[in-house]
Amino acid sequence: MVLEIIGLSPEAQALYERLVERSPATLADLTPATPGELAELAELGLVTPLPGDPPRYVAVSPGRGLDALIRARSQELTAARHRVAQLSARFHRSVPDEDAAGLVEVVVGREAVSGAFLRLQRGARRQVRVFDAPPYATPMGGNAVEFELLGRGVEVRALYDRRAMEVPGTLSLIARYLAAGEHARVGDVPVKLALNDEPMAVMPLRHDRHVVESALVVHDSTLLDALAALFEMCWERAVPLQVRQGRLAEATEAADARRDLLPLLAAGLTDAAIAAHLGWSDRTVRRHVHALLIQLDARTRFQAGYQAAARGWL
Questions:
Q1: Which ranges of 238-300 does DSSP label H, i.e. alpha helix?
Q2: Name one GO biological process term (predicted).
Q3: DSSP secondary-structure letter at 221?
Q4: Who wins on pLDDT, 311 or 217?
Q5: What is the set of domains in the chain, with CATH numbers?
Q6: Is the CA virtual torsion 189, 193, 195, 199 positive or negative?
Q7: Cβ contacts of residue 185 below 8 Å, gap of 6+?
Q8: Are the C-beta atoms of 193 and 262 separated by less than 8 Å?
Q9: CA dihedral defined by 65, 67, 68, 72, rounded to 10 degrees?
Q10: Is pTM, for the whole model, over 0.85?
Q11: Would you place residue 247 in the very low, low, confident or very high pLDDT band (cuts 50, 70, 90)?
Q12: Cα 234–275–290 angle (5° rounding)?
């Protein structure tokens, strides 16, 4: 039965469902229910007895009673996840030098690689950091687990390679992530990489393949520290990406255009990528870029980005 996961036996669930449909009811009305099943529901806070002879029973609303059980189970699972992470960290710290090979695993096959990435996400307690870059093995379709992580308060920071902005569907997908709470930046991505705070990292074994057929899973080690430092260094150099309402309508004022255009210009996006990102035409992009160059007294886009940063516009 579905509700066994939150502590109801199949018999108690069946009884509760009958009570939901015909409260209040006596024990005789609920035959073949037993006093033990009623006691189980009462202990879980799902029924309330009414005075009388014989006593009658009323189901507590599912929105109140079952939600309370779900929240309690979620808290238990969160505590268990934290304990597993603590034990994992202790395990890796206690690995002797002769077992150091276990700190780096090689997983082979798409399913194994996907499983390692899923394990990394599920094991995150506070944050996940990702280098995202093409080529992609499958069409952009979204990472449902990331939305779950963001929903339970895990910080997700994603650094997208400039080339990713050219891939159809990327911008609309990033907009969904940002709306859910992701922190995103655009810059130069040296290698695909994902890190959590278990600590654990997953990265392709080969970076020149269109399909990731094998990957390295790195556990608590000096190598993992180096990968984390690499991410932070690239993150600091990248440009924050902001998307409002998915695709933005054409800005009606110069200040709006400057605010929307500058981060993308500084990130090195092409006119086509900027147009797709902002919902502008190519001609509108060129017009606003030209206006910015004049306003900033710059001859090149690089100079414009430098001047904008110096003036605190970024």
A1: 254-266, 271-278, 282-295
A2: regulation of DNA-templated transcription
A3: S
A4: 217
A5: 1-94 (1.10.10.10), 101-240 (3.30.870.10), 254-310 (1.10.10.10)
A6: negative
A7: 157, 158, 159, 160, 235, 238, 239, 240, 241
A8: no
A9: 140
A10: no
A11: very low
A12: 90
